Amino acid sequence: MNNIQNHPHDWWVVQTKPQSETRAIRELNNQGFITYCPKYRKESLRTHQMKIKTIPLFPMYIFIQANQDAKKNIHVIRSTYGVNMLLKTGEKPALLSGQIIHNLKEIEVQYKNDADSYFKKGESVKITEGLYKGLEAIFHLDNGLERVVVLLEFMNKKTPLYMNKNKLSKT
What we know:
Elements: H1 3-6, E1 11-16, H2 21-30, E2 35-36, E3 39-46, E4 49-56, E5 61-65, H3 68-72, E6 83-86, E7 88-89, E8 92-93, E9 95-96, H4 98-110, E10 115-116, E11 124-127, E12 136-142, E13 147-154, E14 157-164, E15 168-170
Parallel strand pairs: 3-10
Antiparallel strand pairs: 1-5, 1-6, 1-9, 2-5, 3-4, 7-8, 11-12, 11-15, 12-13, 13-14
């Protein structure tokens, strides 16, 4: 099976204004363009609570399918709300293979339920609440959205401590 034949359209790369990917996509879709913005899930710590946000994989960049309708209306892309510019190579729009977009979509589906952890294994963290408040530890394991394992060094031995993730901060 030849994947290139299954994805005949190339895609253009559009640079958006900062944090305007959603608006640019909405406006471009309203104008009849087919758009794509690969996203991933990421944990963030806000007001002592772990939240999972879905954010663009390539901040400030989206893709437009370069089909015949898009080619007829290419002149309206640059003046669309949220769009900064259509990336070009010389005078022609920069092209991205349909196969690359297809692969990005497959990867996005494969990892749609995963979230990039706020803390990384081996990272130094500080305990912000409870009995161990103020102590530094090493982040070891994420047991889910709320619980983690950190390693406290006690008498030259690393001792695991299970606690809520929202009681930690990065050092």
